[in-house]
Amino acid sequence: MHQLEKNSGLYTDYYELTMAQGYYLSNRHLKPACFDYFFRSLPYGGGFVTFAGLSSVLDLIENFSFGQDDLEYLQSLGFKENFIRYLKGFSFQGSIWSVKEGEIIFPYEPVLRVEGSILEAQLLETLLLNFLNFESLIATKASRMRWAAGNRVLLEFGLRRAQGMGGIHATKAAMSGGFNKTSNVYSARLFGLEGSGTMAHSWVQCFDDELKAFRTYANWYPDDCVLLVDTFNTLESGIPNAIIVGRELIQNGHKLKAIRLDSGDLTYLSKKARKILDEAGLQEVKIVASNQLDEFIIQSLLYQGAPIDIFGVGTSLVTGNPDAALDGVYKLSYFDGKATIKVSENIAKMTLPGIKNIDRFITRENQFHADGISFRDEPGYSAIYHLTEPKKHQLGENLTKEPLMHQMMKDGKRMSPAPHPRDIASYNFKRLEQLPEEHKRFLNPQTYLTGITEQVMHVRDHLSGQFLKKFS
Length: 472
Known about the structure:
The chain is α/β, with parallel strands linked by helices. The protein is built from 16 helices and 21 strands. A hairpin with a 2-residue loop joins strand 12 and strand 13 (338-339). The mean pLDDT is 95. The chain has helices at residues 14-25, 54-62, 68-76, 81-88, 118-123, 125-149, 166-176, 185-191, 201-205, 210-220, 234-251, 266-279, 295-303, 315-318, 421-434, 454-471; strands spanning 32-38, 49-50, 95-98, 104-105, 112-117, 153-156, 181-182, 226-228, 258-261, 286-289, 310-313, 329-335, 338-339, 356-362, 368-375, 383-385, 392-394, 400-403, 406-410, 413-414, 450-452.
């Protein structure tokens, strides 16, 4: 049986369990703690990240447990009997606060926090990082492609190039970032997505000639017929044969849905194809383009005036190319009634102490202006300070303050049902429209303004000063 189907507590790193046992044996396991999730660097050289994976995480945490076979395995590894007995009845009983899935987020912002006992919060680290980092990376790539493609259809074709079972959640994340349909049948069923597909070159090669291949396919799928026209010669064979089949479909009361271009100069071929189809009276036939597409190529194709209606994207999307991972981390910020930090001589590596909230300041034009990080119980503030430089930014009076953190889980139970990826994508696109253009450009985007309040800065500097002085 697949471990995720069991929601196994073994979906973790070994040291999470050794630390959990250590907390238990030291009688520290019930002490209250808070961990923050955040990332430090933006992927793709971009200006934002689309937050995704939250619904996956909450589903798994709500049922996070250790089955009998899990406990027997831990016993075989040498974990102590009394700790194993404790895990037998284990479930997460804490709270999770987070920004909404689909939110636009930026480096160093504690966009999710886990509050609970130190043992239970520690055990969630690996699972949480695994899903949030991966789905956010893929959803961000998808958001960039959606922004480049405008209102054109985006198809996810990536399962065959994905990293094993990661392809399941890569599809979900792609839909959360704005893709319309997927070729991944498993994920389509699992997440309630719309599946879609055309044909491969092998279909055409299996017939005596291309026209017969097209006619046969159209006979079986007269209302969902997309013909791949580049198996032999796109302009001399593929498109002319597609026109013949398209006219025959019309005569029989149906319509050719689209042709697909999967090789060659997509701008040139799509322009020629559009012209030939229109002259043949097939103006309603769409043009699908695929073959190693990404946001840069989509943007370039449309800039060149390529009349492409639908883009099929695979490898670059589901692998997060060229970035292998989002560098999200999970750091302790509060323990047993006290704020705590990870100290570093590099201030960018130093964490932010305490239990915190994030506010987004929005202009009269309904555009994002800045994000402020404050303590949860901190009163209003009018200025924020740069995270790594002692630079103050005064917040104007004509800004609306929007709290970004929402309680997603209480007493180990989620507060509301998981949103559909389509709804996540809709929210994400709405938020992208509020992000100024200079932060969305693909090359050299402007850095978005984020900062901490004076109180957060003072506590961080005080705690770091204490530790550095102690060990100097």
